[in-house]
Amino acid sequence: NFIKEKSEQSSPFLLYMAFQHTHKPQFSGKLATNSCIRGEFGDALAELDWGVGQILEELEKDGVSDNTFVFFTSDNGPDLAFKTHAGVQGPLRCGKASTWDGGQRVPGIAWWPGKIRHGRTQELAATLDLFPTVMKLAGGKMPSVITDGVDMSPVLFENKEVATVKFKDINSIVLQSNRQNFVYYSQGSTPQTGLYALRLRQYKAH
């Protein structure tokens, strides 16, 4: 397979794996079908989980897990119009195609044995940040155009302060992310409507 071939050649590789399982119509193989009380969506999600595990197992089997950066995420929140055939946004408002947090906040799981410590962070990051982060890790050169992403290395690997914000009568907040803000546009945005929302660290205005 692709990973084994690249590992044997000691060749750097980029694998972008876009699973379609949780999009409607959902599907799953024999091993996952009727395996979950969540129905077709649960079965599809279980098979997606299995697929990610297969990739991680292959990296370890081929001896390249300690030299491979893996990032698992999603492009948007659940499509609530599909009800039981979609995910759940929990306490967050709205879902896919919305600039509310239910449509924008998604899982972000980083994995690199020996390089990324176990734990969680509340630092701000976006999928836009994957490009400059991967380019830095690979020793590549960013294109000479304006890009919207920032390097996530301080959050993922360095665990060090990049800035400190001081508030009157409140303890200082130590920041580790190069991203301190995010601008939200809707698919229906026009120059006349402008921004739909703006985030500054833990604060967000619609």
Description:
This protein has helices spanning 2-8, 39-61, 101-104, 130-137, 153-158, and strands at residues 70-73, 108-111, 163-167, 170-175, 181-184, 197-200, 203-205. It is α+β, with helices and mostly antiparallel strands and 206 residues long. The N and C termini lie far apart (47 Å).
Entry keywords:
206 residues, alpha+beta, three-stranded antiparallel beta sheet, two-stranded antiparallel ribbon, 5 helices, 7 strands, 15% strand
Structural class: alpha+beta
Enumerate the strands of the largest sheet in spatial order, edge to edge or round the barrel.
5-6-7
Order of helices and strands: HHEHEHHEEEEE
Mean pLDDT, to the nearest integer, reads: 89
Share of residues in strands? 5-15%
**Would you report the number of β strands?**
7
Largest sheet data: 3 strands, antiparallel
**Estimated radius of gyration:** 20 Å
Shape: globular
